[in-house]
């Protein structure tokens, strides 16, 4: 398990000693899988019973409608977990898909092993659950931010709301966003061409400036 040194710093494993990680992961029935960019991440069962922790790369949570149109619900970064909403719910059927936004590695942990104390009564179980609850709270905040953005009436208002949030995260009016144009269009539930036109118009009006993913708000 050559990734132990890396994941020891992740929030989900906060307060768990490094020497406990390897036996803990074995106890949880953990395994690691690699995915190429654009590949859909399978939880290996129709019912989601595993929780994923991203070791490297990035993952998009994607929602698809009956016509095949998809929207990026959120972006999962290194050290974050995903799939827990469906693993711990009463309905384990996932209503979203997870797609590798770039080449990535995912650590899967069996949720039932996390929730129920093993015969050895390993002390890390309680701490792991506490960490997961805190991460769920942070994820809910991110989804609230998404709702704030997409609830705006016009595309311009959506763009400015999203960029305002990213500027606040960076603590500066000059910042880099994690989404490319296609990804940003999907996140905003907007047409890519319309997004490009609106950004260009806002740049001409002196509202903002940008170079690829680098933005400056005036």
Please give the domain count: 2
Report the count of strand segments: 10
What's the Cα radius of gyration? Answer: 19 Å
Main β-sheet, spatial strand arrangement = 1-7-2-5
CATH topology assignment of the largest domain: Jelly Rolls
Under the CATH scheme, the architecture of the largest domain is Sandwich
**Class derived from helix and strand content:** alpha+beta
Description:
This protein has 218 residues and is α+β, with helices and mostly antiparallel strands. The chain folds into two domains: 4-142, Sandwich (Jelly Rolls); 152-217, Arc Repressor Mutant, subunit A (Orthogonal Bundle), CATH 1.10.10.10. It has eight helices and ten strands. The protein has helices at 4-7, 18-27, 84-87, 111-115, 124-150, 155-170, 181-188, 192-204, and strands spanning 31-35, 50-56, 59-64, 70-76, 81-82, 97-100, 104-110, 174-176, 208-211, 214-217. The protein has a four-stranded antiparallel β-sheet. It has a three-stranded antiparallel β-sheet with strand order 4-3-6. A hairpin with a 5-residue loop joins strand 3 and strand 4. The longest helix has 27 residues, at 124-150. 25% of the residues are buried. The model has no long low-confidence stretch (mean pLDDT 87).
């Amino acid at each position: 398990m050559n990734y132990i040194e890396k994941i020891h710093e992740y929030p989900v494993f906060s307060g768990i000693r490094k020497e406990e990680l390897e036996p803990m992961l074995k106890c949880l029935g953990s395994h690691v899988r690699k995915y190429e960019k654009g590949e859909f991440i399978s939880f290996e069962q129709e019912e989601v019973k595993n929780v994923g922790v991203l070791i490297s790369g990035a993952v998009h949570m994607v929602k698809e409608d009956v016509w095949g149109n998809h929207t990026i619900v959120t972006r999962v970064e290194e050290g974050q977990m995903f799939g827990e909403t469906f693993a711990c719910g009463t309905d384990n059927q996932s209503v979203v898909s997870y797609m590798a936004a770039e080449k990535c590695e995912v650590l899967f942990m069996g949720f039932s092993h996390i929730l129920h104390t093993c015969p050895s009564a390993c002390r890390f179980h309680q701490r792991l659950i506490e960490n997961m609850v805190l991460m769920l709270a942070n994820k809910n905040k991110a989804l609230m931010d998404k709702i704030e953005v997409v609830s705006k009436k016009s595309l311009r208002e959506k763009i400015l709301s999203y960029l305002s949030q990213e500027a606040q995260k960076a603590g500066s009016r000059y910042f880099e966003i994690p989404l490319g144009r296609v990804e940003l269009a999907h996140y905003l539930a907007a047409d890519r061409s319309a997004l490009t036109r609106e950004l260009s118009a806002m740049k001409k009006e002196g509202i903002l400036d940008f170079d690829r993913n680098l933005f400056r708000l005036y």
